[in-house]
Predict the structure.
Amino acid sequence: MSPCELSSRRRIPSSRPQTQRRLLREISVSGRFSKSISPSRSRPRYPYTSFGKLRIVSTEGLIGFKLQAIANNPRRTRDMEDIRALMRENRDSLDQDELREYFRLFGREALLDELLKEIQ
């Protein structure tokens, strides 16, 4: 069984309606977050270590993963603080179009606008 088949059969723990679970499952199957594991603009393509190639999650991708965690469990306040800190520290290099796409996926565009106002 392929990883895509496994991820599509996993039950996504959430108190969200069935449509939200389906959306999250489609994201994992379609690889919408797969570009978040692609090389960052400021880093070498895939740095080599003594263990081989090292894939590095981009800042935008990490924010996307934390946003997914918040969508699954809104009580995860630490993830929201992490998002704020990541955006504050990387404000000049963030790809805002990619961020907006992640926030749109979870229906949180207003939150993104609020965070962008905070960090400026």
Notes: Confidence is low (pLDDT under 50) at residues 1-16, 26-31, 36-40. The chain has six helices and two strands.
